[in-house]
Design goal:
NAD; NAD-dependent oxidoreductase; seven-stranded parallel beta sheet; Rossmann fold; 7 helices; 7 strands
């Protein structure tokens, strides 16, 4: 292990790795020396999501980018809602790599609408992917991490909307607040095994989700909602690059953050304080 490769010899599992933040996290952790295991649905995951889904080609690009960093990667088309599928992926990863040290629960989706108006199906899509998907990841990964006996770090990608609620996305906020609750409780349960659990809270990231144009129809119908979306405290000319969030993820994955668990880490340019 060297200072520029702090994850040398370790294995990281990233959900939703085909593009956006997930891809950036895969590549950055690979640059830090970790072998990578990743999954993505690579196709439509709901009928109420206003942006295009990831594709198998996206996942293939992630595989190529990780391999270019000189580490190994195992990638598969699995939806985080597939409880048994995630368990199979982790069992295969342990068989192939012998350990699991870092988990980045990144997979997530978003849609728009007022809470009393959205169809029940729309509510369920968001809860099932964002919250139950994280729960499934926990159930697949934690036993393997405990058995390996190496401690480790679980990083849940929540959202600024997991701390500071926004209008027009109550279902999304509920899912992301739920991620925080599960992460905090889990941190207390797995601490005795040397496993840390923290959540990352982003705002305005340059991904398919962050560029979802369907949000503007909500703002057109309810223009006062826009006042809940401030630019943040730091100068902001554009959406945050995913690789900037990956630096926070790497910090949480490495021993540099050994004192942090059950923490909510903002990656939001101060948005939540404005």
């Amino acid at each position: 292990m060297t200072s520029d490769r702090p994850l040398e010899g370790k294995v990281a599992y990233v959900t939703g790795g085909a593009r956006g933040q997930g891809r950036a996290h895969c590549v950055r952790l690979a640059q830090a020396g970790a072998d990578i295991v990743t999954i993505d649905a690579c196709g439509p995951v709901g009928n109420h999501i206003g942006y295009e889904p990831s594709t198998p080609e996206d996942l293939a690009d992630t595989v190529r980018l990780v391999e270019d960093e000189g580490v190994k990667i195992s990638a598969g088309r699995v939806d985080v809602r597939d409880h048994d599928g995630q368990k199979r992926v982790i069992a295969s990863a342990i068989e192939q790599f012998g350990r699991l040290d870092v988990v980045v629960a990144n997979a997530g989706v978003m849609s728009w609408g007022r809470a009393w108006e959205i169809p029940q199906e729309q509510w369920q899509e968001i809860i099932d992917v964002n919250l139950t998907g994280f729960f499934n990841t926990v159930q697949a990964c934690v036993p393997a991490m405990i058995e390996a006996g190496n401690g480790g770090s679980i990083i849940a990608i929540s959202s600024s909307a997991g701390i500071k609620a926004v209008p027009g996305a109550g279902h999304y906020c509920a899912s992301k607040f739920g991620v925080v609750g599960l992460a905090n409780s889990l941190a207390l349960e797995v601490g005795e095994y040397g496993i840390r659990v923290n959540s990352v809270h982003t705002y305005g990231v340059d991904t398919a989700l962050g560029n979802d144009l369907s949000m503007y129809s909500t703002f057109e119908k309810h223009p006062h909602y826009v006042y809940s979306f401030s630019p943040g405290a730091l100068p902001t000319e554009s959406l945050i690059a995913p690789n900037q969030v990956s630096e926070v993820v790497l910090f949480l994955a490495s021993d540099a953050s050994a004192l942090l668990t059950a923490a909510q880490i903002p990656a939001d340019k101060g948005y939540m304080k404005v």
